[in-house]
Amino acid sequence: MWGAGTRFQLPTAVFARNTHVNEDAVVTTTETSSSSLIATQQERVPLYRNTTVIKWVLQVIVLALVIFAGWFFGQQAADNLAQKGVQFDFDFININQGFDIAFGIDANPDTGGRALWVGMVNTIRLALAAIIVASILGVVLGVSRLSNNWIANRVSSIIIETLRNIPLLVQIFIWVVVFQQFGRLEADTPARLGGLLFTSARGVSIPRIFAADGFYQWLIWVLIGAVVARFVYKNRVAVRDATGNDTFAGPVAAGVVLLFALIGWFAHRIWGFLEVPLQAISDAWGSVPQSIVQILLSVLAIGGSALWIKRFLDARRTPAGLAKLTDDDYFRIVFSVLSAVVALVFFWVIWPGLSSWIVNSGSDFWQVAADKFGTDNQGNERTGGPFGFAMPDVVPNERNPNIVQYNLEALTLPIEFMAIFSALTLYTAVFIAEIVRGGILAVPKGQTEAADAIGLSRLQALRFIILPQAFRVSLPPLGNQYLNLTKNTSLAIAALYTDVYVVGNTVINQSGRVLSVFLIWMAFYLTLSLIISVVVNFFNVRLAIVER
Amino acid sequence: MSISDATQAVSEELAARDDMIVCEGVDKWYGDFQALKGVTATVKEREVVVVLGPSGSGKSTWIRTINRLEVHQGGRILVDGVELTNDTRNIEQIRSEVGMVFQSFNLFPHLTVMDNITLAPRWVRKQSRPDAEAKAMELLDRVGIPEQALKFPGQLSGGQQQRVAIARSLAMEPRVMLFDEPTSALDPEMISEVLDVMKDLARGGMTMMVVTHEMGFAREVADRIIFMESGEIVEVGTPQHFFESPSEDRTKLFLSQIL
User: What is the DSSP letter of A499?
Assistant: First the structure.
């Protein structure tokens, strides 16, 4: 009996986390010998064989190794760079690097940071445009490769097999040569497609629709229209469910948005008064003391961590009480607390200036928003429509009438952009085509047969059965292609398009801060890739087929 | 009463009923392989016909031509008086009156059991959602799994999936049900739950054509058995006649191999 009494202390202490299990053992076993047997078995496990201990020790060792490796290599790099006289700082961000950028949102950036930002915007523009066009082209190619139409089938097969098997870099150079065939821009350079298109060594100029004076006031109308359309849509769906008749919920909702857009086109001026409250928000935001923001950030970090832990524990809760937490669960909780601590250190010690940055940029943001309403910069009432429209044209240069240039209001795509854009788009489109084809083929034949057998029409089968399943299969590889495309934009250097890589190279030449620019590049591409991953994953999780 | 008397009695009673499915000299080729060679048969209203035969004999191909999952190249097929032609309206009309249950269930994995069943009634028959769902619950009750309505097919056992597939077909209120080896993909212990549902259906007066290897089911439920081999109908008769005194040698050989 003494054995049972003393030995029982240890297991309950060690396994305090699943106390109820031990209690069950006590309640259900009337024989003390059997409960002491359980206790003895637990007691005898030496530390080096205890999985809990092993897991924790390994976790701590790995963490220590990672920290050490980071510190070691960082130190080595810093020493080597110092020996070679290479400096590591980010001062160039605020210093004028003294170079122009051929195209982008700012031709003469006044600081290194601004220059890099121009490059980043160029990269994002290129990636976004290529993703959209490549997706559309890819779907068309993929579907036509599956079609029974012999010509469509053959043509897309040839395009896909050719483009897929030529390296991207070679394709970029081919497109560069193609676009270099354009002649000099002259006063008599002919318009093509009835004035919609100009081509020359200066680039391709096409009509542009741009946000004009009343755009943001009009946008308010559209947003209200979207909210109303949401209600209308739900109502239409409810009516359809109740009566069984198709109520065309989608088209009706789209019509509502269009209606509001139309009203807003003429009535956008009534939102001018928003200038006052937005200005007030901006002023209020700007007058928040830095310490308050610091405290708010800290509360946010601690609260976020606490909320995460609470949600996590809730997810582990079963009707029978809190489920036994695994060691990994404990790691998660520990790291949640750790990350809150790191955040606090960051807010108060490493970068206290973050708070004033938030105050200033927040105030600036609302200031910019306020400027979009009411009167314009010259103090005039906003009278124009929400959109402006400009046709491409060849006009004399303002400063030197002897040379000509494109109409600056129209959209001019330089040949460098056209070359990298064409190559990236076509190269990615053929891979997307194969993914689309694979996705449709991956839906078993039995699904189509079942849809036929229950009487669905061809279109209904496509809409409810084939496409939803094909899309699920295609989404992850599609996300991969978007990531590839985004990373491949760095090949823009082959076409001399000023993306973030080309601009960064110039910044390195001007400032000598190799490591700093490398870090900025890495952070930029990583952020871009993560955003794409998050978006793709969001849809992937939402569309996942439930099994078990 | 002798066996031949019994056969005669059933035949007379059957002959008085209306024709539901009429096949006249149906031919089907895959390339230069002829899968169906002039298949001629009639299925009467409320009759249960079981089609037997060795694999590759054209049983599945035949039953799949009846709702145009396979296109026949010769002969005529009429379902409830409507001929299967290239006219899409005829095809759609026949498909919505003919239910089909497949060997591999073919449920839609991305839709819940409820949505699997109500999809066609709502979009083809234009029923309201409450009506379609009430009907679906009734059917799920009938096949014995009302509690699975909101699950996805992947969460069900094979037998349950096949019962959902039967409920999905019944939701269109078909006049004929075709079963293409409905139990061949099931574990032995799940076969009986599906066969029970089918027996129940037969008792309720549904016109059924069943391709199966379940001899017990054929013997118990079938009004007539059609034996096929190499794309031809070899013998037609009542279960007693077929199992106890088959007249053709090929039938005898088949029975000796499986029994």
Answer: -
Rg, chain A, Cα only: 32
Instruction: Identify all chain B residues contacting A543, using CB atoms and an 8 Å cutoff.
Output: 110
Mutate to test the interface with B, among A241, A243, A454 (most CBs of B within 10 A): A454
| Pairing verdict, β B176-180 and B207-211 | parallel
In this complex, is the C-beta atom of B128 within 8 Å of any C-beta atom belonging to chain A? Answer: yes
pLDDT in tens, B58-114: 999 999 999 899 999 999 999 988 898 888 888 888 998 999 999 999 999 999 999
Cα distance from A253 to chain B (closest Cα, Å)? 20
Please state the pTM of the whole predicted model.
Answer: 0.72
H or E stretch including B48? strand B48-52
Question: CA of B240, closest CA in chain A: separation in Å?
Answer: 33
Could you tell me if B135 lies within 8 Å of chain A, comparing CB atoms? no
Q: Which two tokens stand for residue A464?
A: 């409810």
Q: How far apart, in Å, are the Cα atoms of B49 and each of B20, B42, B52, B246?
A: 12, 10, 10, 17
> Residue A226 has which token pair?
């979207």
Q: How many CA atoms lie within 13 A of A382 on its CB side?
A: 28
Q: What is the C-alpha to C-alpha distance for residues A263 and A228, in angstroms, rounded to an integer?
A: 14
- CA distances to A160, A209, A216, A413, A500 from A226, rounded to whole Å, are 40, 22, 15, 33, 36
Chain A within 8 Å of B126 (Cβ-Cβ)?
yes
What is the predicted ipTM? 0.91
**DSSP for B167-197, written as a single string:** HHHHTT--SEEEEESTTTTS-HHHHHHHHHH
Q: How far apart are CA A390 and CA A411, in angstroms?
A: 8
Judging contacts by C-beta atoms under 8 Å, the chain A residues touching residue B63 are none
Terminal C-alpha separation, chain A: 48
Q: CB-CB: which of A446, A452, A464 is closest to B104?
A: A446
Q: Which residues of chain B have a CB within 8 Å of the CB of A444? A: 106
**What residues of A are in contact with residue B122 (Cβ under 8 Å)?**
244
Amino acid at site B127:
Q
Inform me whether the C-beta atom of residue A464 falls under 8 Å from chain B C-beta atoms.
yes
Q: Are A36 and A4 in contact (CB under 8 A)?
A: yes
Q: Is A173 exposed, middle or buried (0-12, 13-18, 19+ CB in 10 A)?
A: middle
Beta-strand pair A394-396/A404-406: antiparallel
Q: Which mean pLDDT values do the consecutive 10-residue runs of chain A (548 residues) have?
A: 42 43 44 50 73 83 90 87 79 82 84 90 94 94 88 92 94 93 80 83 86 84 93 90 80 92 84 85 87 90 93 84 78 87 85 81 87 74 77 83 82 91 96 94 93 90 90 91 94 92 92 86 93 91 73
